[in-house]
Design a protein that fits this description.
The chain is of the alpha/beta class. The protein has twelve helices and ten strands. An eight-stranded parallel β-barrel has the order 2-3-4-5-6-7-8-9, surrounded by nine helices.
Length: 307
């Protein structure tokens, strides 16, 4: 297989939101710089979540002001509500804004109420206002959480997910991410949904964001690739998953390991644009920052290229 994909490195946001202890701003900045140095073209840098609810990102503006900017590298910040977009605009006006913003919906009512503290209708009203406020100044990434199953309601209708993707597209989102929030997706369900969206929205990048809760994350990523997906979210060390204060889901809730997926794609002849030697150094730096071995199999076995 000869092709090219884009992997968005999510350690600094979706990864760190799961950590109970605050990671120093200088450490985050050093890690983000190592990610761009390794060749990532899209990097999730932080979140404009309310600092009292998610204190790990109270330094969002300071992080964005300090990171090194490289040509062709876009940094992304998550915005759960219009107030967050206003903060993003303030940083942009100050000369150190994010290039991309993530805007969140959930495919189920129960998860919307638990995670976003509103109804689906209420969140879509917020999304419309957020896109109006953004005023074309950012690349917008719509995110559909619990796209393959909800921890409270169970199975999610793929048709509802497709409707959410279409709504984001109609509102002007540049990419739409499907989040497997508690890791219930399977390769057949992934292939079917990504193939459907490829047919319905040709040219719209649909991002695969899988959690490895049940050990199926990489298999699901390959299924998405085979269905035409070329954009993936991962986190070094497989950390993250959901905020540490949220107790739904069982077992290891983290993201697909960047190291493992990047090396698999490399072995398959799929171009990620990443320097594996620099990726190995970034992987080690993430383990040092959190003070423990993380979950990458490649980090234990070695970053050996395919023969």
């Amino acid at each position: 297989m000869s092709d090219a994909v884009t992997i968005c490195e999510c350690f600094a946001r979706d990864g760190l939101q799961h950590e109970p202890e605050f990671v120093p701003t200088a450490t985050k900045v050093a890690l983000l710089d190592s990610f761009s140095h390794a060749g990532f073209r899209r990097i999730e840098a932080t979140s404009y979540s309310h600092p009292e609810r998610v204190p790990g990102f109270a330094d969002a503006s300071a992080v964005l002001a300090a990171i090194a900017r490289r040509p062709g590298v876009a940094f992304k910040a998550t915005c759960p509500n219009p107030r967050a977009v206003r903060r993003a605009l303030d940083d942009l006006d100050a000369g150190h804004g994010a290039e991309e913003l993530s805007l969140l919906v959930s495919a189920s009512e129960a998860h919307t109420e638990r995670n976003l503290r509103t109804s689906r209708a209420g969140q879509w009203k917020r999304i419309t206002e957020m896109i109006r406020l953004a005023d074309g100044r950012f690349r917008l990434v719509g995110v559909v959480s619990v796209a393959f199953g909800c921890p409270f309601e169970g199975a999610v209708d793929p048709g509802r997910v497709a409707e959410d993707v279409a709504r984001f597209a109609d509102l002007g989102a540049d990419l739409v991410t499907l989040g497997d929030t508690t890791g219930v997706a399977t390769p057949p369900s992934v292939h079917a949904l990504f193939a459907r969206l490829e047919r319905e929205h040709p040219g719209l990048p649909v991002v695969a964001h899988f959690h490895n809760t049940r050990g199926t994350g990489i298999a699901n990523a390959v299924a998405a690739l085979e269905a035409g997906c070329r954009d993936f979210d991962t986190a070094l060390g497989g950390v993250g998953g959901h905020p540490s204060a949220i107790r739904y889901g069982a077992g290891l809730t983290g993201n697909v390991c960047t190291e493992d997926l990047a090396c698999l794609f490399d072995a398959m002849g799929v171009d990620t644009g990443l320097d594996l030697d620099r990726l190995a150094k970034a992987s080690a730096a993430c383990e040092e920052a959190l003070g423990r071995p993380l979950h990458s199999m490649v980090a234990r076995a070695g970053f050996t290229r395919a023969a």
